[in-house]
Amino acid sequence: MKKIIVTGALGQIGSELIVKLRETYGAENVLATDIRQTDSPVVQGGPFEVLDVMDAEKMFDSAKRFGADTMMHMAALLSATAEAKPQLAWNLNMGGLLNSLEASRELNMQYFTPSSIGAFGPSTPKKNTPQDTLQRPTTMYGVNKVSGELLCDYYFDRFGVDTRGVRFPGLISYVTPPGGGTTDYAVDIYYKALEKGSYTSYIAERTYMDMMYMPDALQAIVDLMEADPAKFKHRNAFNVTAMSFEPEQIAASIRKEIPTFTMDYDVDPVRQKIANSWPDSIDATAAKEEWGFTYKYDLDAMTRDMLEKLKQK
Ligand code: AKB
């Protein structure tokens, strides 16, 4: 049975990952940490500690005291926030990553951290983007993510830390809203569809980006961490995706459930520029072949579930 410490446990992925890990490995085996404390189920439902990922000593102490054998480092600033505060993003995204890798090296922990489609740039092939390809991102977030992928490879090669990771696309969920991402429109649209019956998209028509429903993303993390590494040719940056769509397609999917739904556009130049620099669709063959990556939800299945779950909230 794993003993897992998770950073960024109150964030968009963390808050659902904690629930999934506690169901899978037992509540007492998952230590949730975040820079703030709230009365969320993450804090109430099992061990929780306040932890700033910039505090290397406290991170090491918390992991050691808990007897953790696995580190899942989720704390990070997303793309739009990182673009607004690039120096903070470098310090937090890279500093937190290095501290968590160091704790993993010292305590011999297995390690997971997500990379992103943001690790690609305008010179990357845009369609069916290969696993191994040109990566020259033009955003601070992308620079952080490519550096992170390389650093994780380095910790495996140099120190033997069992580092693993995926390049997540935009993640869509009804539990914790994302903050400061470029793909957030694809979450927001469901809330507004139910609240107002309409949505104003900050991403322009015909802008394709990869996406995935949160339950599939969580399962991918567990599957990758449980996978036999004998088949690995890669480790830290597996492309994973479940769908690629542009705003009109998600609107059409919502219209199948809410026929009166309407959408217009007020494009945000900053987030549009970021989106334009990312792939239209990525190729997940390596993840499928090397550890059996799979997913359950396509766009319409996700839309039905999102709307149903949001109505119950
Ligand atoms: C973002 O939009 O910044 C994230 C991501 C794709 O990494 N959702």
Automatic annotation (TrEMBL):
CDD domains from the UniProt entry: TDH_SDR_e
GO BP annotations listed: L-threonine catabolic process
InterPro entries: Epimerase_deHydtase, NAD(P)-bd_dom_sf, NAD(P)_epim/dehydratase
Any one GO molecular-function label of the UniProt entry: L-threonine 3-dehydrogenase activity
Limits of the NAD-dependent epimerase/dehydratase domain: 4-239
Family recorded in the similarity comment: Belongs to the NAD(P)-dependent epimerase/dehydratase family.
Protein name: L-threonine 3-dehydrogenase
Native source species: Paenisporosarcina cavernae
